[in-house]
């Protein structure tokens, strides 16, 4: 009886806590949410389309029979990811690694930053971990430090330790003559190649040190297991710098050294699509872009975090490339690769190998030629593009008719779409399927990212 009275009292307490809902089921009050179009992206309204070859399969590969499928709405980059955009990723990783190494060394030598004028002012101590002064922490941060961060993990004893941010974040000193102390010199020296290995006498970053680590969930595996243990799979650190040697390795007995030397880092190519990036590196970029945006949102109040940036599925890519044109051969419809003025509509290899006939020898700027009806540039030619899907020649026979995809993580053959500057017209067709191995980097393969649209209203066939 006492238990019943206690339960009734607790229940009465909850009933009395309603705020003007008169006991009605009104739902949890939340913030008003409005969709936000990501910078540089365009909305591709979901809908149905006929995926696959609508014309003769000249290569007789027979891996793309026609199939009506439906895809949900999503945002997609208007252009391929450019060298400038990918360099932002590389610079962020380099900056983070340097700051982490400075913080670790400061911890090892027992230096912490002071509020100015102290014995460690202007030293490596300025870059110490934000939690170096335990007594100044909030109760939450102190608890997390004492129970988690201070003990680290088996793989990383500094896991969870926070670097300084915001107004407390000191600028990195890049001029060697202004390095504050010998510890700072030691860290910076560890990031560069020795002078004997530097190109043209330039101080060169050791790109093998630029590693990025991220976690992801294999949802197809997760739904088959019970509980949340082991839900997140941590990928091994990925070397994220593009393989610039692809320009030489892809074309034996040719002179492409200028592209190897200058294409990725020189400002002249800033707005050209990044190449030499394998499938795993493209996924790492997506993970970083999500984290980077959410890191900014986290500092603001009243905003929900965004969902993940990712590579498009094969079906999403084809749907977007078609631009709403049913059964078209190319993103502009077709059936020809020239417009009514006799100008080529894309950057590829026409006329039996005349690379320059279309106005470009290699790649062109990402916003070249006319966009399709979804305002997407170079969905045919320029560089071929990685997709999220694994390649299976019989995939169209068994994939779902709703948001079809082949998420086989064990299959290292990943679908590549769109054709490139070095391909003939057949590969520019929106229905042509091709593949490359996930760990391969090519001078003619790049990528663009997508983000799911939150909600279902933005569909191409939505009733008025």
UniProtKB/TrEMBL annotation:
Claim: Lipoprotein is one of the keywords in the record: yes
Entry superkingdom: Bacteria
Encoding gene (name): gldK
Record's keyword terms, sorted: Lipoprotein
Residue intervals of the Sulfatase-modifying factor enzyme-like domain: 40-94, 218-450
Name this polypeptide is given: Gliding motility lipoprotein GldK
Upper lineage: Bacteria, Pseudomonadati, Bacteroidota, Flavobacteriia, Flavobacteriales
A Pfam family hit: FGE-sulfatase
Presence of the UniProt keyword Lipoprotein in the record: yes
SUPFAM superfamilies: C-type lectin-like
Family annotation (PROSITE patterns): PROKAR_LIPOPROTEIN
């Amino acid at each position: 009886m006492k238990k019943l009275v206690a339960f009734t009292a607790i229940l009465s307490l909850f009933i009395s806590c309603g705020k003007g809902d008169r006991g009605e089921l009104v739902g949890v009050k939340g913030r008003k949410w409005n969709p936000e179009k990501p910078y540089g992206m365009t909305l591709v309204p979901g809908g149905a389309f006929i995926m696959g070859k609508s014309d003769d399969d000249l290569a007789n590969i027979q891996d793309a029979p026609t199939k009506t499928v439906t895809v949900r709405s999503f945002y997609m980059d208007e252009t391929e990811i450019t060298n400038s955009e990918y360099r932002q990723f590389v610079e962020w990783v380099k900056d983070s690694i340097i700051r982490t190494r400075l913080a670790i060394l400061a911890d090892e030598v027992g230096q912490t930053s002071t509020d100015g004028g102290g014995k460690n002012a202007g030293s490596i101590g300025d870059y110490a971990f934000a939690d170096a002064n335990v007594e100044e922490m909030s109760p939450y941060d102190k608890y997390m430090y004492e129970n988690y961060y201070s003990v680290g993990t088996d793989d990383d004893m500094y896991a969870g330790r926070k670097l300084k941010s915001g107004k407390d974040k000191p600028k990195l000193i890049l001029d060697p003559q202004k390095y504050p102390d010998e510890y700072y010199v030691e860290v910076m020296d560890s990031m560069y190649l020795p002078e004997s290995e530097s190109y043209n006498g330039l101080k060169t970053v050791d790109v093998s040190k630029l590693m990025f680590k991220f976690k992801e969930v294999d949802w197809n595996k997760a739904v088959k297991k019970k509980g949340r243990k082991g839900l997140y799979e941590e990928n091994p650190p990925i070397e994220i710098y593009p393989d610039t040697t692809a320009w030489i390795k892809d074309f034996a007995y040719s002179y492409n050294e200028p592209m190897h030397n200058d294409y990725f880092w020189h400002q002249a190519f800033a707005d050209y699509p990044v190449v030499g990036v394998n499938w795993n590196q493209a996924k790492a970029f997506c993970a970083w872009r999500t984290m980077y945006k959410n890191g900014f949102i986290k500092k603001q109040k009243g905003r929900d975090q965004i969902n993940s940036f990712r590579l498009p599925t094969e079906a999403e890519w084809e749907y977007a490339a078609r631009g709403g044109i049913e059964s078209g051969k190319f993103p502009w419809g077709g059936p020809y690769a020239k417009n009514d003025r006799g100008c080529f509509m894309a950057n590829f290899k026409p006329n039996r190998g005349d690379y320059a006939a279309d106005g470009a020898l290699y790649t062109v700027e990402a916003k070249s030629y006319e966009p399709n009806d979804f305002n997407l540039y170079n969905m045919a030619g320029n560089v071929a593009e990685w997709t999220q899907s694994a390649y299976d020649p019989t995939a169209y026979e068994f994939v779902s008719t709703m948001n079809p995809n082949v998420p086989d993580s064990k299959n290292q053959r990943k679908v590549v779409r769109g054709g490139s500057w070095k391909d003939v017209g057949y590969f520019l067709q929106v229905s042509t399927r091709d593949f490359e191995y996930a760990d391969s980097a090519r001078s003619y393969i790049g990528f663009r990212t997508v983000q799911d649209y939150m909600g279902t209203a933005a569909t191409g066939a939505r009733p008025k």
